[in-house]
Amino acid sequence: MSQPEEEPEQRGGDPEPNPELNGSTVNPRAVCNVCKRLFREPKILPCLHTFCSDCIGQLEPFSVSPGAGAGADRGRAVVVTVLCPGCDSEVDLPPSGPAGLSTDHLALDEVFLETLASDGPLGCDLCGEGGAESRCEVCGVNLCGFCCQAHRRQKRTASHSVQGLDELKSRGRLCRPILCCVHPGQELRLFCQPCDLPVCLECAATLHRDHRCCPTSDVIDCHGDRIRELITVRLRPRLERLEESLQKVDESQELLQARVDATANDIRAFARGYASAVEAHCVSLLRRLEELRIHRRNQLHVQRAQLRQALLDIRGGVEFAERLLSCGSDAEILSAKGVTLGRLTSLSESSLDPNLATVAPDDGSSICFMPREAAGEVEGYPVVGIIHSKTIDLSKCTIEGEGLQRGIVGQPGHFTLVCRDSAGEQLTRGGEHILISIAHKEKRNCTIEATVTDNSDGSYSVSYTAEEPGSYSVWVCVKTQHVKGSPFILNVKRKMRRHSGTFHCCSFCSSGGAKDARCGCAGTMPGGFKGCGHGHKGHPGKPHWSCCGSTVEKSECLPESVVAAVSPRGHLRTVEL
Predict the structure, then answer these.
(1) pTM of this structure
(2) Are residues 127 and 56 in the same domain?
(3) Could you read off the pLDDT of 502-515 as tens digits, one per residue?
(4) Would residue 201 count as lying in a domain?
(5) In whole angstroms, how far apart are CA 356 and each of 310, 350, 359, 419, 537?
């Protein structure tokens, strides 16, 4: 039998894992999260996430910046930054690309263990013919029985540790040395402290000859303790706090969802209850509307019967009287005169009954629905919408304000019409047709234009400005019918004449004893003085105006004709004191 070729001695000689994951349950630590297959040359990114070397190489660069090259490579050295597919962190790739990243040997062990756990048989990695029975832990290759014997006979591999596959399966983990990528077959047993790298014996003797290299067992405690310190002192407490915060966030999300669900149930319950209350209110409004219809219909029936009876009575009386006058003789007319006049007089008086011919029939125009008005509560829910059915009673309407009786030329006058129903209550809505007419009783073409403002509460504000004095007739009509008392009498006076003198006790005191001072009052002083003085003849006995003698301080100045009629003198000259 021919001697098998010398097998590779590097970890890179591991067989390529089967890309198809046939097992139903696959160890996630053996699968790349990018290609979703077993790891092939797993590399560790600076964020400690592991992916296949090819998958990292296919990542689209996030940014490219010039690096700190040296010598001839100064212009070509660039730093390529990619986004980690696992955490979206920005990580820099080494100048050599994904190959320069650290290999994840733990991932390779997981891939091999996953391969061992598969149901299919493993082939020999050297001859490719026989089934693998063992594995060289140094070379990382699967060997059949024949290749295993040849592997032990060769000088380079005679000292390698070869374990049976069944033993490895039962052990559940791998424990194999890491070989140097520069010197194949050499195990990384030393650690170069200046370079901070594990090296083999040949590297220590050649490439790191002047460096301080120590066995890995001497420095593992120091470097391991640094990792443990970071984990124990800094990261583990922070990890616990983050887990606690995350748990609180999850609990808050659950509480939030529970609260939202409870509130949604409350809203649905409220909506059902409110809809039921609205429906009940609607039924109540329709019932009320039907009651109004029946009541108004009965009123119309009564009014129709009364009008019909009045019509028959008047028609019968008129026909009898006309037939008596046209067909009766003088004696017949005179003999029936008494009863005929009595009946006609009675009919003429009854025809003025406001409940009959002079009252317009109710056409239902006063019935309206007011959707925004508060209607109290129904089943504990506030509802809106009422039926307004009040009818204006012209005999109950009132007018408020002095502007209806008195006015002053050039000054605005105001009064308010309040529409009321038959019970005397003020209507709560507007919209009535109000007619205000103000005309001079003596001057034909003299009228006053009035402005009516609907206050939307059953009241109407009326304003006007008179340009001429005199007596005016004011018509106040609602729906072309006069309210009670209309037309009214409005007296418009001229503007009040202001006083031009002084409001004083007497001219003698106010003028300082001036003999030529005169007062508008009827008072005189002895000794020929024409002014007035305290207690003398004609003095009003109280403070008064020097211009007209009026004793009311806030009053209108009397014209000279009035003063002349009061004073014994024909002419008065007043002075301002």
Answers:
(1) 0.43
(2) yes
(3) 888 888 888 877 77
(4) yes
(5) 8, 9, 6, 22, 69
